[in-house]
């Protein structure tokens, strides 16, 4: 339900940071030149990563406050355990004259990083973010071996998309249904796109924002009833995983219409996930104050029985949700969630490719869910993922520069502890990199 981490200035972590948005049917050339101050700092990075440079002179005071040298050294030990020691800067892709994405070579692999420097003298580094790592000469068998090391349950799949059904090229447990987090919002997108295609709605339709007292998202602080277009709400839902936008859309499109898209997009076991909960309902069911309602929900054995629980307790489930519901520990991830397998998600992505139209695909590409280096391998990359404590899922619809389409989808969940976003994102970045060159 909560969205994946964005770029964090002055903090160095492993993260699934979103990259620059790309249009779906056009490749873009990077025409931005890096400033001398940026290239100078990049030239000094390798010794810093090795722990040999002048840490205080290299990083800004704000960065050093949040990331003391000991913290950087500890992180680099983790990175070096996976891909060896840093050797050289292999590629620089400027985002602005003072910020860039880097491909950093290590003895046994490659790390993708984002760096930002202060435009003002002495141009200290204000942000450094590791967005992914991959072993040198990565293979599908190595990727699967890495997935198998994740505690709990996980799965992934790479599907080729063409005129027929999605064709499985590689994967692990592709048919195993799993919790999706905010990936369910692809069904909401499908419902919106279907209604636009039918002529019953237009992307320019104005809808009033409906507040459900949800934490997270830009729109949570906007006034109730604020007018937004269908396209704007959908953009917030996809790019920021905004929960207020999502629930407004479900209400406007019709919960029954969203439910219908679960089967229409090809989910093999729709009854497991129906009815499609709003984010407010999911938050409320996980609230300890509603333990009796949760028990009733968990004992319901059919979609109609679960709908009856929601109807019976509508007032209680509409009360403001406490942010402390998500305290870092998994809560009912096997019952209060949205469920589909990697194979199901590939079918959803293929349905969107075939039926959603250019506008919907453009909205999916606002947040590609990967770093600029990976995104640059494709002509188009659309994304929706999701996470909550104990759950993470990432789903990509990509078109390679040779024109071939693919779905790359994966999930990981456990009910005994949280999952590590950075570890999973790194695996999915590796899956994307392999998809870029798969036969």
Automatic annotation (TrEMBL):
The keyword Endoplasmic reticulum does not apply. SUPFAM superfamilies: beta-lactamase/transpeptidase-like. It catalyses: a beta-lactam + H2O = a substituted beta-amino acid. The keyword Electron transport does not apply. One of its GO terms (molecular function) is beta-lactamase activity. Residues 161-269 form the Beta-lactamase class A catalytic domain. PANTHER family: BETA-LACTAMASE (PTHR35333), CONSERVED LIPOPROTEIN LPQF-RELATED (PTHR35333:SF5). This is Beta-lactamase class A. It comes from Stakelama sediminis.
């Amino acid at each position: 339900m909560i969205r994946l981490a964005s770029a964090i200035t002055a903090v160095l972590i492993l993260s699934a940071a979103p990259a620059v948005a790309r249009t779906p049917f056009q490749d873009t050339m990077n025409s931005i030149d890096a400033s001398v101050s940026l290239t100078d700092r990049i030239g000094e990075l390798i010794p810093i990563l090795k722990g040999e440079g002048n840490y205080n002179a290299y990083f800004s005071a704000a960065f050093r406050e949040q990331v003391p040298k000991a913290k950087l050294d500890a992180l680099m030990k983790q990175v070096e355990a996976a891909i060896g020691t840093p050797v050289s800067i292999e590629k620089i892709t400027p985002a602005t004259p003072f910020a860039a994405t880097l491909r950093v070579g290590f003895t046994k692999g490659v790390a993708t990083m984002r760096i930002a420097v202060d435009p003002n003298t002495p141009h200290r580094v204000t942000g450094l973010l590791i967005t992914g790592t991959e072993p040198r000469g990565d293979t599908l068998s190595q990727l699967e071996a890495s997935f198998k090391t994740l505690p709990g349950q996980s799965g992934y799949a790479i599907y080729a998309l063409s005129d027929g059904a999605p064709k499985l090229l590689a994967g692990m447990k592709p048919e195993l249904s799993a919790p999706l987090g905010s990936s369910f919002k692809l069904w909401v997108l499908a419902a919106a796109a279907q209604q636009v295609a039918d002529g019953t709605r237009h992307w320019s339709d104005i809808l009033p924002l409906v507040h459900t007292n949800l934490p997270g998202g830009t729109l949570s602080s906007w006034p109730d009833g604020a007018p937004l277009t269908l396209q704007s709400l959908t953009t917030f839902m996809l790019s920021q995983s905004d929960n207020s936008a999502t629930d407004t859309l479900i209400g406007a499109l019709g919960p029954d219409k969203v439910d219908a898209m679960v089967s229409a997009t090809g989910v093999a076991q729709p009854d497991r996930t129906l009815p499609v909960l709003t984010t407010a309902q999911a938050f409320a069911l996980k609230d300890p104050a509603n333990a009796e309602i949760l028990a009733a929900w968990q004992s319901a054995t059919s979609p109609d029985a679960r709908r009856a629980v929601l109807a019976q307790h509508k007032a209680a489930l509409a009360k403001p949700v406490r942010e402390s519901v998500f305290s870092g520990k998994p809560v009912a991830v096997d019952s209060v969630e949205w469920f589909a397998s990697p194979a199901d998600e590939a079918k959803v992505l293929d349905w969107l490719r075939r039926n959603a139209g250019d506008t919907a695909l453009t909205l999916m590409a606002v947040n590609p869910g990967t770093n600029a280096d990976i995104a640059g391998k494709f002509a188009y990359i659309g994304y929706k993922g999701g996470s909550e404590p104990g759950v993470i899922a990432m789903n990509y619809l990509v078109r390679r520069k040779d024109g071939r389409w693919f779905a790359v989808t994966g999930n990981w969940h456990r009910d005994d502890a949280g999952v590590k976003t950075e570890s999973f994102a790194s695996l999915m970045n590796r899956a994307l990199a392999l998809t870029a060159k798969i036969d």
